[in-house]
């Protein structure tokens, strides 16, 4: 970006609210491959394509709709990013996380981040769900590289609890109560876009990962930098290379993700209903509305 993140977010918020009206939602979501159907369930819906929001990058990947949707879902005001961009599309790390920074700028308190991932843990099966307990960043990059703007967060943010402990426990309890195959595990983020080799899969397993994918971690780093609580969920669409007899392709990933959509959306819906009340981060949002901050 040629302008600061603060300025870019402020201009994006101004454009959004000029086109679809005020957005006041303490709960945000980032929907990965195959989960765009959740956005269709939002009532009193107001939507805006990414290409109509200044500075927001657009995705070139099938299965990522690329629009911001706000409204009411499960009795809560929500703002949803339906689709994401990835570093392997040629975007910088700072551009990849601009959408989640936008959520923070809108006052979001808690963000639910979803993805499709390959199972590395041999006890997992395609179609299972995983609650992220931690992550390993193997993308050789970070959205925090460069000068730090203290208005967004500290120079050295703590990542001891990248994924909120209470939300993880709540999600596991609800998932098991509903008879879903849901695990808690570690997500390894690689750059992509090639799927991992069998040797790479063995490596990430030795490092302690249970699943591997090409997204999420930069967004979570940025979200925690800005003080948001994070719940991460993976739909395990396939066994990673070397764990099954077949090869991998994106169409099959989308097909399995689509088949697991009902279970994933049902789990997220139950968790959202059971969450404690959330408060809009009005003070954090206000700095993007003040002309002096830009």
Search tags:
294 residues; alpha/beta; Rossmann fold; five-stranded mixed barrel; 10 helices
N to C succession of SSEs:
HEHEEEHHEEHEHEHEHHH
Q: Stretches where pLDDT falls below 50 for ≥5 residues?
A: none
- How many discrete domains? 1
Q: What's the total helix number?
A: 10
CATH domain class name: Alpha Beta
Order of adjacent strands in the largest pleated sheet: 5-8-7-6-9
Compute the number of strand runs.
Answer: 9
CATH architectural group: 3-Layer(aba) Sandwich
Strand content: 15-25%
- By CATH, the topology is Rossmann fold
Spell out the CATH superfamily.
Nucleoside phosphorylase domain
Please estimate the helix content: 25-40%
Shape: globular
Structural class: alpha/beta
Task: Please outline the major beta sheet.
Answer: 5 strands, mixed, barrel
Distance between the termini: 14 Å
**Rg, Å, rounded:** 18 Å
Plain-language structure description:
This protein has helices spanning about 5-20, 35-40, 95, 100-105, 165-175, 200-205, 215-225, 250-260, 260-275, 280-290, and strands spanning about 25-30, 45-50, 65-75, 75-80, 110-120, 130-135, 180-190, 210-215, 230-240. It is an alpha/beta fold and about 290 residues long. The chain has one domain: 3-Layer(aba) Sandwich (Rossmann fold), CATH 3.40.50. The two termini are about 15 Å apart.
């Amino acid at each position: 970006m040629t302008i600061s993140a603060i300025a870019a977010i402020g201009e994006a918020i101004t454009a959004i609210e000029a086109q679809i009206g005020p957005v006041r939602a303490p709960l945000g979501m980032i929907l990965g491959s195959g989960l765009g159907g959740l956005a269709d369930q939002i009532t009193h819906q107001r939507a805006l394509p990414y290409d109509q929001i200044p500075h927001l990058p657009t995705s070139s990947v099938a299965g990522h709709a690329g629009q911001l949707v706000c409204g009411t879902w499960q009795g809560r005001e929500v703002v949803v990013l339906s689709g994401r961009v990835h570093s392997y599309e040629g975007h910088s790390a700072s551009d990849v996380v601009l959408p989640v920074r936008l959520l923070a700028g809108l006052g979001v308190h808690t963000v639910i981040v979803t993805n499709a991932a390959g199972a590395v843990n041999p006890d997992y099966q395609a179609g299972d769900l995983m609650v992220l307990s931690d992550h390993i960043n193997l993308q050789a990059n970070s959205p925090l590289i460069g000068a730090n703007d203290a208005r967004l967060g500290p120079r050295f943010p703590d990542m001891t609890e990248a994924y909120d402990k209470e939300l993880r426990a709540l999600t596991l309890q609800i998932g098991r109560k509903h008879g879903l195959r849901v695990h808690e595990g570690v997500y390894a983020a690689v750059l992509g876009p090639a799927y991992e080799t069998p040797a790479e899969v063995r490596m990430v397993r030795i490092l302690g990962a249970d699943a591997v994918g090409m997204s999420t971690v930069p967004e979570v780093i940025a979200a925690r930098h800005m003080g948001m609580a994070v719940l991460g969920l993976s739909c395990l669409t396939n066994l990673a290379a070397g764990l099954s007899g077949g090869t991998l392709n994106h169409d099959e990933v989308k097909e399995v993700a689509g088949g697991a959509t009902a279970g994933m959306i049902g789990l997220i819906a139950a968790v959202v209903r059971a969450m404690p009340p959330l408060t809009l981060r009005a003070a954090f949002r206000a700095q993007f509305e003040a002309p002096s901050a830009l």
